[in-house]
Design goal:
Elements (H helix, E strand, L loop, with lengths): L1 E5 L5 E7 L2 E8 L5 H15 L9 E5 L5 H18 L3 E4 L1 H7 L6 E8 L4 E9 L3 E11 H11 L3 E4 L1 H5 L1 H6 L3 E2 L2 H4 L3 H13 L18 H10 L3
Parallel strand pairs: 1-4, 4-5, 6-9, 9-10
Antiparallel strand pairs: 1-2, 2-3, 6-7, 7-8
Length: 230
């Protein structure tokens, strides 16, 4: 039984899965911080699923890109669980997890997350018989990402919070949007990606796994401007 966590965006999601079966998933989007919600929701989900902590044999977590604060909360929780419960830890790229929302879509999947100031975190995944990374992740202006996707060719389906934010631009470019329930971050998809990696023996150390920010936070950039490089 694998426990999965995603706190990379405004959405908080946790899930339980085993082999190819999703046992439970709890996904909410509120204005409360993830630090207030994560543990209570996770505990309640485990209880309602009739699962005990002893049943959980691995934990997977979305490691970014995404919200700097959200990623730290989710990763710290997953690392604590892995270390204390002595179960394997699997870090899953957030953009990969979003693409798992549309696994088997017979299209290329364009996951889009907000990187602020008109920029997005993006990648391109093939979702046919298998899911694979077609174009590596980047942080770039949304217009550049759309242009690159069009140059690649389709069909292309957009997922992620910025699929909603830039809906008009995407549709005008001929890029389809995933259904609403498949656009948002879901721990069920983190679980599916995590189970695949676990089968392949690709696990991470709870002491060494770090968030995949792609770029530095605006606070870090501002500090450097004010104080110079260390």
């Amino acid at each position: 039984m694998l426990l999965a966590i995603d706190t990379s965006s405004l959405v908080l999601s946790c899930a339980l899965a085993e082999e190819d079966r999703l046992v439970a998933e709890w996904t909410v989007q509120k204005k409360l911080t993830h630090s207030e919600q994560l543990l209570p929701h996770m505990d309640e989900m485990i209880k309602e699923a009739g699962v005990t902590k002893k049943d959980i044999t691995a934990v997977a977590v979305s490691i970014g890109p995404g919200s700097f604060t959200g990623l730290r909360i989710g990763l710290a929780t997953a690392k604590m669980i892995s270390y204390i419960w002595k179960v394997p830890l699997i870090g899953v790229d957030t953009l990969e997890a979003l693409s798992w929302n549309m696994a088997g879509a017979e299209a290329f999947i364009l996951p889009l997350l907000d990187a602020q100031r008109g920029n997005v975190y993006a990648a391109l995944y093939g979702a046919f018989d298998e899911l694979w990374l077609e174009k590596k992740e980047t942080a770039a202006p949304v217009d550049d990402v759309i242009a690159a996707a069009l140059a690649h060719g389709g069909p292309i389906i957009a997922v992620g919070e910025c699929a909603d934010k830039y809906k008009d631009k995407l549709l005008a470019a001929g890029i389809k949007l995933a259904p609403a329930h498949s656009r948002m971050a879901r721990a069920g998809s983190v679980a599916m990606a995590g189970l695949k990696k676990l089968k392949e023996g690709r696990v991470d150390s709870p002491l060494a796994l770090l968030p995949n920010y792609i770029r530095r936070s605006e606070a870090e950039v501002l500090w450097e401007k004010q104080h110079g490089k260390s």
